[in-house]
Design brief:
Layout lengths: L10 E2 L9 H7 L9 H18 L5 E5 L3 H12 L5 E6 L2 H12 L3 E6 L8 H10 L5 E5 L1 E2 L4 E2 L2 H10 L3 E5 L11 H4 L3 E3 L13 E5 L1 H8 L12 H4 L17 H17 L1 H21 L15 E5 L6 H12 L1 E2 L1 E2 L8 E5 L7 H17 L8 H13 L3
Parallel strand pairs: 1-12, 3-4, 3-5, 5-8, 8-9
Antiparallel strand pairs: 2-10, 6-7, 9-10, 11-14, 13-14
Helix pairs in contact: 1-10, 2-10, 3-4, 5-6, 11-13, 11-14, 12-13, 13-14
Length: 396
């Protein structure tokens, strides 16, 4: 007879999901009520307001899609891309490539601006592509490329696109809650994220937000949105304003309890404080890794603090290191993807994972694991370097 599943204890320090606080797990265990219950509708309004604050937007259409971050991506593309639309998509990693796939499946014509993996999107390349393709309706790019640990200059890229009359879709799945996402200030037209990264909530929901210009584009569509479930013209009736909501789908009620609690916790900490916390623990981790003679290949000004790409030294086995960390220390880190497979590890410091205890635990385990494989390092130097950084910031 099959027994109940009890997962092993892990420290999640990969590219996602991140650690989930017991408060969030406890919230998800509360009694289920109806998705049209007035109390639940009141909570929906609170989630919307907190998401607006986290995304730094006043957009009326701001909501969590009832599916993972990939569905947030698809929501943006199926609503804003019509058959025959030409769309510029900037690809500098795995998730820019997925944007391209969404354009194709929505009937659009992708115009690809490619950059080297490990480098941000080049604004000059985008400018050149827009000049060479007048009349492009949309530009799409990833702010925080999870596959490489690189952050692109969202403000500049949006400004260039708007100057040429294009709306902009931005992937902020790994950015939101860990680094600034200033939706209104930067003029982003459609933005999507996920709950399992810096919001420290289990996977399964995808915050999205659409500007008034994007909403106008959706209202003016010549063809129906190809996805019934993700058609915002229908979803708006459920996530709209006021007590009266039209039935669209049965929302994941307990998952939304969890998101509500995660956003309450972020509000208690303060969004700017959360950004600073991610940066602080990234710098301590960087100091420790470099003390082990490990290199972070992304340029310092382009690194994501919450997702650290670390070059695999030639004297160790990349996959064996991850396996040993998991089996002997209970720590999960990520492998490289695409052309970076076997060449980098991806170490996440996202949401609740970003704290000094976890940094210390990983550095000690990493030092032990690399030493067993014969990597030349000075024992204790990694923790010493991290502690020196923490001491400089006043953190014990």
């Amino acid at each position: 007879m099959t027994k109940s599943f009890h997962p092993p204890k892990r420290l999640l320090m990969g590219p996602g999901p991140s650690e989930v606080d017991p408060r969030v797990l406890a919230a998800m265990s509360r009694p289920t009520i109806g998705h049209l219950d007035p109390a639940f509708v009141g909570m929906m309004d609170e989630i919307k307001a907190m998401l607006q604050n986290t995304l730094r937007t006043r957009n009326a259409l701001t909501l969590p899609v009832s599916a993972p971050g990939s569905a947030g991506m698809e929501t943006c593309f199926v609503n804003l891309v019509e058959p025959g639309d030409r769309v510029i998509v900037c690809v500098n990693g795995v998730f820019g490539g997925r944007m391209k796939e969404n354009i194709v499946r929505s009937g659009g014509e992708p115009i690809v601006v490619e950059d080297t993996w490990g480098k941000p999107v080049d604004p000059d390349k985008l400018e050149d592509a827009l000049k060479a393709n007048p009349g492009v309706r949309l530009v799409a790019f990833v702010q925080a490329e999870t596959s490489t640990g690189v952050e692109s200059d969202t403000r500049t890229l949006v400004e260039i696109a708007h100057r040429h009359g294009s709306l902009v879709i931005v992937d902020t799945v790994t950015a939101l809650g860990g680094t600034p996402v200033l939706t209104d200030e930067w003029g982003i037209d459609a933005v999507y994220a996920g709950t399992q990264k810096c919001l420290s909530c289990p996977p399964g929901l995808a915050p999205v937000s659409f500007s008034e210009a994007a909403l106008e584009r959706i209202r003016e569509r010549r063809h129906p949105v190809q996805s019934w479930f993700l058609d915002l013209n229908l979803v708006m009736g459920y996530w709209g304003e006021g007590a009266k909501r039209s039935y669209h789908h049965t929302a994941p009620i307990n998952a939304l309890y969890g998101l509500h609690e995660a956003l309450v916790m972020l509000e208690e900490e303060g969004l700017e404080n959360a950004w600073a916390r991610h940066r602080r623990h990234h710098e301590a981790l960087r100091a420790g890794l470099e003390a082990m003679r490990l290199e972070l290949p992304v340029a310092p000004t382009e690194r994501l603090p919450q997702l650290n790409a670390v070059a695999v030294p030639g004297d160790v086995d990349e996959a064996a290191t991850r396996r040993m960390l998991l089996e002997h220390h209970g720590i999960e880190i990520g492998a490289g993807l695409g052309p970076l497979a076997g060449k980098v590890w991806r170490i996440g410091l996202m949401g609740q994972t970003a704290n000094a205890r976890n940094v210390r635990e990983l550095l000690a385990a990493m030092e032990h694991t690399l030493a067993l494989q014969g990597h030349r390092l000075v024992r204790g130097a990694a923790l010493e370097a991290a502690e020196a950084y923490y001491a400089s910031t006043g953190e014990a």
